[in-house]
Design goal:
The complex is a heterodimer. Chain A has eleven helices and twelve strands. Chain A is globular and about 95 Å long. Chain A is of the alpha/beta class. Chain A has helices at about 25-40, 75-85, 100-105, 105-115, 160-165, 180-190, 215, 220-225, 275-280, 305-320, 325-330, and strands at about 50, 65-70, 90-95, 120-125, 170-175, 195-200, 225-230, 235, 245-250, 250-255, 295-300, 335-340. In chain A, helix 1 crosses helix 6 and helix 3 (about 100-105) crosses helix 4 (about 105-115). In chain A, strands 2-1-3-4-6-5-11-7 form an eight-stranded mixed sheet, with helices on both faces. A three-stranded antiparallel sheet of chain A has the order 8-9-10. By secondary structure, chain B is an alpha/beta fold. Chain B is built from 20 helices and 23 strands. In chain B, a hairpin with a 5-residue loop joins strand 1 (about 5) and strand 2 (about 15). In chain B, helix 9 packs parallel to helix 14. Chain B starts with a strand and ends with a helix. Classes of the chains: A alpha/beta, B alpha/beta. Chains A and B meet through strand 1, strand 2, helix 2, helix 4 and helix 10 of A and helix 1, strand 10, helix 9, helix 11 and helix 12 of B. Strand 12 (about 335-340) of chain A pairs antiparallel with strand 10 (about 240-250) of chain B.
Chain lengths: ~350, ~625
């Protein structure tokens, strides 16, 4: 991919458009981190495309000084597939929300993942429909009271990243709007991954679902309720990193490291599909007793051929076998006859 | 129709005929479509004019021997101009009782029935719902036809006795026996089919040998049978001088798309989801990857079109295709492409509707869908094909308009055109109109901003593709400000943009040819105005009427939105305008609405084309003739 010839700054990725999210929205932080990480990634602006669907998050492309498309609800993933299939040279970013990608666009998301186009998906999860003013989303928790569920939502929510793994995602990660450093690290990792990188970003909607993730983001609870996984390192969390996770067969258990040898702890290996599958099941309601902490970081990364490369390989193979297509031979076919 | 009779050396006679309609019918597993298309290929190569009409059940393998399982292939070939598969058949080839029952009403009086007697055993008769003990082959009910009975199964087994093949496998070659016999009857060479078999069974030489043997046995059966039979001589047609090939409608679409992409210097990206009767385009395109064609079998109809929009955004030729139900799903994305003002071709191979409707039958009932079927004010240009050998040119035009005017374009065909075959006097690549594609370049002065919605004389906006430094911009489905493309909810701007998008479509009329008269007088009592697959049958009907002294004009549209600029003036030259359509009256509404011309409808909604007689009698009725 073409790299920027001149070192750019985050400002170079800011457009002249007025940002129209509600004051205090988590989207501002995500936009800032993306604009900050772009110059570090070093791809020329003209070779970057941001594609979004519909929803609050989908306004994103208007604010990025790159190529961009604000499309229709749920279809950014499919549009990006067609773009990447014909323009593998571009760095393609999909910005989507929990409604856009998991409800109306659920089908395209799973097929994008199994095909493994080399694109990046930023899934802003705020567990609510914001732009339509506050209905429950496919990630809203059971019982959540919203405008369309005054007696509480009866829909069981998706565990988005478990779904991503089920659809054979090759890069699965989670971060949050309130941890800029972590988010930038994950964004850079997503970009570096060849294949579909999906990053779920917990994003606070301060108008319709304020505090949905505060147990993970606020100082008072963050250390006990989250676990930041890093390749090759033991799973540790807690106020002074004094809790750890061990795998008892297939069952993860919380242990006090003062009573357990560090050698017995679960060592994170993002290439281990089995363990990633268990990690993605750390999805308990934080209000539940004996719940596991919510993990953040890169859970799984796998190298698998990308659709656009396989597509081109078949074309190359056909050209090798049959030669570059001859239009006149194609039009005339094999059986012709003359009249007159 | 026959001119003279001569006695041949044997006990057979030969008649000369100007044209013949044969219907092959049998179980959908009997290889009927293959038999029909082989005879078509052979007749075409011989130099006959041809027109075919495959008619198959919606089920792939409906229960054997039953009426719903009957598959048919109608072929009209001749030494004269052939425009339709024919209203009635001269020859009906039936592999079983159900095939006879389902198609007998299509056979003309005194027509020939060639029946496989093995398909009339008690079991097959029962499946075809003949009353107990009734066998139409033996009860005299077919006395007014020329009945030829052949035990095809037995003769096929005899031909392959000692081949070491199992009975089941042997029986699969039955259609080759019938084909061989028909070749004998019409005095045709077996070479084309032998070549086909060699190619088809390349990896199983024993099957080449077996099928050729049965084909030859069928031919020899005609030669040696002691029953006196009539052979027919159908000479070459006087087609316009040139080089021809046989083409099916969907094949023509595929080749036209590849040709247009090549002429435009773009990658063809074809995003689609399988649907009858459009899937054959996907099959054909996927064979031509050495032209750089990228076929994308998407997860659904919406992904098919939106992926194509992605490809167009990237600067390539995005095409999507479907039939009515799938087009309905693509509707929102067509609106997006209209707002993005990107080139895109949406192919609709129409079938009977609404909903799932009649998936394997033809209809022209999606014209209003193409014309109006979107939310908001969303005009889309429409180009239509009128016959299998017209699809190449018509879809090429659709691509040209899409690319040169930066706009999504509908291309309409239907199941009848899609699966029909005709001789095609094909063009060379050098004959094809150039397609001008120009990506926007960065000619901006220092500090000047790129405006994605400035327009040229066609009202087309620049195609600024990702990768072009300095032209970074954002587009979307939200209403945009004129020129800058910025989001705008300004009321004046919205009204202005709606009218501008309409004007952009209307302006295409300056870049398409004037409407031509297909046949008939330039002024007169009556003109038949039509579009799509009614072409051949209208042309035949008007020719026959002319022989009877009635001169009606035929105007057949390719460009439906916008109409050619001279269309209204043309229509006003006639007292009566008749609009026959295979729907409940769609073009006729648009014509009445647009021109306030009191056009008269003629509608048929039976999943099958018009018969020439239906067109003729309507014209006579209107003229009081």
């Amino acid at each position: 991919m073409e790299t920027a010839t001149v070192k750019l700054s985050p400002k170079d990725f800011v457009t002249d458009q007025e940002v129209r999210w509600c004051p205090g929205c988590g989207d501002y932080s995500i936009l800032k981190q993306v604009q900050t990480v772009m110059p570090e990634i070093g791809i020329a602006r003209e070779n970057i495309v941001f594609i979004s669907g519909i929803g609050c998050s989908s306004r994103f492309p208007y604010y990025m000084e790159t190529y961009g498309m604000h499309s229709i609800h749920g279809r950014a993933t499919a549009i990006a597939s067609g773009l990447k299939a014909t323009r593998p040279d571009l760095s393609v970013w999909i910005v989507t929300g929990d409604g856009d990608s998991l409800s109306i666009g659920g089908n395209h998301l799973i097929h994008l993942l199994r095909r493994n186009f080399d694109v990046n998906v930023l899934l802003f999860n705020n567990e609510i429909y914001g732009l339509t003013k506050g209905q429950y989303s496919p990630t809203s928790h059971e019982g959540q009271v919203t405008k369309s569920s005054p007696m509480g939502a009866i829909d069981h929510p998706f565990n988005p990243l478990a779904l991503v793994m089920g659809a054979s995602g090759t890069f699965i990660a989670r971060s949050m709007d309130r941890d800029p450093v972590h988010l930038r690290t994950i964004l850079a990792r997503a970009n570096a991954h060849k294949g579909t990188s999906l990053v779920e970003i917990y994003q606070n909607c301060n108008v319709f679902n304020d505090g949905a993730f505060e147990v993970f983001t606020e100082k008072a609870s963050k250390k006990n309720e989250t676990i930041f996984v890093e390749q090759g390192k033991p799973l540790l969390f807690g106020e002074n990193n004094d809790n750890g996770i061990i795998l008892d067969g297939f069952t993860p258990r919380v242990v006090d490291i003062n009573n357990t040898s560090v050698n017995d702890l679960w060592i994170h290996d993002e290439n281990d599909r089995g363990k990633a599958g268990i990690l993605l099941q750390f999805f308990d309601d934080p209000k539940k007793e004996h719940h596991l902490p919510r993990p953040f970081g890169v859970f799984y990364a796998e190298q698998r051929p990308c659709y656009e490369d396989l597509m081109q390989a078949q074309i190359d193979q056909a050209v090798t076998a049959k030669g570059t297509g001859n239009l006149d031979a194609l039009i005339s076919g094999k059986n012709t006859w003359h009249v007159g | 129709m026959f001119v003279y009779k001569i006695m041949s050396a044997s006990n057979h006679t030969t008649e000369q005929k100007k044209s013949v309609v044969i219907m092959f019918a049998g179980d959908s597993g009997d290889g009927i479509q293959l038999t029909g298309s082989q005879f078509t290929g052979t007749a075409a190569l011989f130099g006959n004019d041809i027109s075919t009409f495959p008619n198959f059940p919606a089920e792939i393998r409906a229960p054997q021997g039953t009426l719903p399982g009957v598959s048919g292939f109608q072929l009209h070939f001749g030494s004269v101009e052939i425009n339709s598969p024919g209203d009635v058949c001269d020859v009906l080839v039936v592999m079983n009782a159900a095939a006879l029952k389902a198609n007998l009403r299509q056979l003309r009086k005194n027509g020939t029935i060639i029946a496989n007697t093995d398909g009339f055993d008690p079991k097959n008769l029962k499946l075809a719902k003949y009353p107990d003990g009734v066998n139409p082959l033996t009860d005299g009910s077919l006395a007014e036809y020329n009945l030829i009975t052949i035990d095809v199964t037995k003769l096929t087994r005899n031909a392959l006795a000692g081949s070491g093949m199992g009975t089941k496998e042997i029986d699969r070659s039955k259609n080759m026996f019938v084909l061989g016999f028909i070749y004998w009857m019409y005095n045709r060479s077996l070479e084309h089919t032998k070549e086909f078999l060699k190619e088809q069974f390349r990896k199983r030489p024993e099957l080449i040998e077996a099928n050729v043997k049965v084909l030859q046995a069928g031919y020899n059966y005609g030669d040696t049978t002691e029953t006196p039979m009539t052979r027919y001589d159908v000479r070459e047609a006087k087609l316009q001088p040139g080089t021809y090939r046989s083409i099916m409608g969907n094949q023509g679409v595929a080749l036209g798309l590849i040709a247009a992409a090549q002429k435009a210097g773009l990658t063809l990206f074809y995003g689609t989801y399988p649907i009858t009767p459009a899937s054959d385009i996907l099959h054909e395109l996927s064979k031509h990857k050495n032209f750089g064609v990228k076929t994308f079998q998407a997860e659904d109809e919406i992904a098919g079109i939106t992926a194509a929009i992605g490809a167009s955004f990237g600067g390539q030729l995005g095409v999507t295709a479907s039939s009515g139900p799938g087009i309905a799903l693509k509707t929102e994305a067509i609106g997006l492409a209209t707002m993005l003002e990107l080139p895109l071709v949406i192919v609709n191979i129409q079938r009977g509707g609404p909903s799932t409707g009649l998936p394997t039958k033809t209809e022209q009932a999606d014209l209003l869908q193409a014309f109006y079927g979107r939310n908001g004010e969303c005009p889309v240009p429409i180009v239509s094909a009128h016959s299998p050998n017209d699809t190449f040119d018509a879809v090429y035009e659709a691509v040209r308009i899409a690319l040169e005017h930066m706009i999504p374009v509908f291309f309409l065909s239907d199941g009848y055109i899609a699966n029909g075959a005709e001789p095609w006097k094909f063009p060379t690549s050098a004959d094809l109109k150039p397609i001008h594609v120009k990506y926007a370049e960065n000619n901006l002065a220092e500090g000047e901003k790129f405006h994605p919605y400035v327009r040229d004389e066609k009202l087309a906006r620049p195609w600024a593709i990702p990768g072009t430094k300095g032209l970074e911009h954002r587009i979307g489905g939200i209403e945009k400000e004129h020129i800058t493309g910025n989001i705008s909810y300004d009321p004046e701007n919205h009204e202005f943009m709606v009218k501008l998008r309409q004007e952009k479509v209307d302006k295409i009329a300056d870049y398409i040819p004037a409407q031509q008269l297909d046949s008939g007088p330039e002024k007169g009592r009556i003109a038949v105005l039509a579009w799509g697959s009614t072409y051949g049958v209208i042309r035949s009907a008007l020719r026959e009427l002319r022989e009877e002294g009635i001169d009606a004009a035929h105007i057949h549209l390719r460009y439906i939105n916008p109409f050619p600029k001279n269309l209204e003036a043309m229509l006003r030259n006639y007292d009566i305008v008749l609009v026959p359509e295979i729907n409940n009256g769609q073009l006729v509404r648009i014509i009445r609405d647009r021109f306030l011309i009191d056009a008269k409808p003629l509608n048929k909604i039976k999943g099958v084309p018009f018969a020439t007689s239906e067109i003729k009698s309507k014209i006579k009725e209107l003229l009081g003739a």
